[in-house]
Design a protein that fits this description.
Length: about 250
């Protein structure tokens, strides 16, 4: 199989993954492996934006790359960070120990056996989701054809991240809706229990439940569940105190 066929096959496989229930870490680790296999780089890594706004290491093609990327995060300098913060590609850079754009990172990278670096942002429209780091033991830059493939990998990785987050958000909303519906059923059951035991109507039963939950700083659903289970303090459904006698 020719290299071009390998590239096409890899892109198709990545695209096919997006329709499955995929593991995002496994998928992005596959991206780093494909970069090493097809682009001639020596190592690759992916960092993603955390909810707090910083970057976190998610995937790497080797243990040496993982340690170097952790160092990059710790020292807060390096190609991946620049690509993420600027939202622009960081072109090929030959590394010099203790000098250049990233003196600390360059020293660590050279000690790990790498000689050059570049990075691509993972962007979806105007949002930067993370960055793809590509390191090489050679100093020659990537050919233009390899850069085009690297950008395609980065774009597909960004799509996979966005889809994964959208799926997770949809699942979270579904879980919240399901929990809300379940809570509503429990509350209705509790209203019936209190109404039967006290002889008040359902509206008054709900008011007593809610007032007790607020007064004791408990969740309404928990109080309702206790009423259904028969473990709720009977004071919870006692009528409110009347006005004091003059």
């Amino acid at each position: 199989m020719t290299r071009e066929a390998d590239v096409v096959r890899s892109l198709v496989e990545m695209a096919d993954t997006l329709v499955d229930d995929y593991d995002i870490v496994d998928m992005l680790t596959g991206v780093t492996d494909r970069c090493v296999d097809l682009l001639g780089v020596s190592a690759a890594g992916v960092m993603l934006a955390s909810p707090a706004g910083g970057l976190a290491l998610v995937a790497s093609s080797s243990e040496a790359m993982r340690l170097l990327e952790l160092f990059e995060l710790q020292s807060q300098e390096g190609p991946c960070l620049d690509a993420f913060h600027t939202g622009e590609p960081i072109e090929h850079q030959n590394l010099q120990s203790g000098a250049g754009r990233w003196p600390s990172f360059s020293t660590a990278a050279l000690q790990a056996g790498f000689a050059s670096a570049l990075a691509l942002p993972l962007r979806l429209r105007e949002v930067t989701l993370g960055a793809l780091n590509l390191l090489s033991t050679a100093r020659a830059p990537l050919a233009e054809a390899d850069l085009i493939v690297a950008r395609a990998f980065a774009d597909l990785a960004a799509l996979s991240i966005a889809q994964h987050r959208a799926s997770a958000e949809a699942q979270r909303l579904n879980e919240q809706l399901s929990a809300a519906l379940t809570s509503r059923v429990v509350i209705e059951q509790a209203k019936g229990v209190i109404s039967e035991r006290t002889g008040v109507d359902l509206s008054d039963s709900f008011s007593r439940l809610r007032n007790y939950a607020r007064a004791t700083n408990q969740r309404l659903t928990d109080v309702a569940q206790a009423a259904v289970d028969g473990t709720l303090d009977p004071l919870a459904w006692a009528p409110p105190p009347g006005p004091a006698s003059p």
